[in-house]
Write a structure and sequence with these properties.
about 150 residues, alpha/beta, 5 helices, single chain, five-stranded parallel β-sheet, elongated
């Protein structure tokens, strides 16, 4: 709590920003008065999965541009202990693909919410769709023989 306001923190990679990202951020916004969003740096993301497609500074600017976000900050670590203490976080929201990972924050007095993404869109599924579509187009092009172009005389 800061100035009698409930401070909510959510974080993520936010690569290839999509509707499930927006749903989670909207959910977090509804839990308090001040919303801080951490955007994982390229180095942090690369430490546990494939590097993001969209560079960090671009992803940060996308999050900063959202009207519902009060503050967007870089996230350099998956351990949120220090950020919780420094920013007086009351609630933490993260996708349900991280269930259990942040339960330790409850010992610091933080309510932890695991947002249910469901079966919808994800950055990983977007990347796969783009890759698969590219492969299909490439294969189709390679199978098609170019017709000879007749020169006009």
């Amino acid at each position: 709590m800061f100035n009698n306001k409930t401070v909510v923190y959510t974080s993520g990679t936010f690569d290839m920003f999509h509707t499930n990202h927006l749903k989670m951020i909207n959910y977090a916004r509804g839990l308090g008065d001040l919303l801080i969003v951490g955007v994982s740096t390229d180095e942090l993301v690369s430490s546990y999965k494939a590097a993001p497609i969209i560079p960090f500074n671009d992803r940060l600017q996308i999050i900063e541009a959202l009207r519902i976000v009060d503050i967007a900050i870089p996230q350099h670590t998956l351990d949120h202990t220090e950020i919780v203490k420094k920013l007086h976080i009351d609630a933490f929201v993260v996708g349900d693909d991280w269930v259990g990972k942040y339960d330790y924050l409850e010992e610091l007095g933080v309510k932890v919410f695991y947002f249910p993404y469901g079966n919808g869109i994800s950055s990983s599924s977007l990347k796969k769709t783009i890759h698969d579509t590219y492969d299909q187009v490439l294969n189709a092009v390679q199978k098609t023989k170019p017709e000879k172009i007749k020169k006009s005389e």
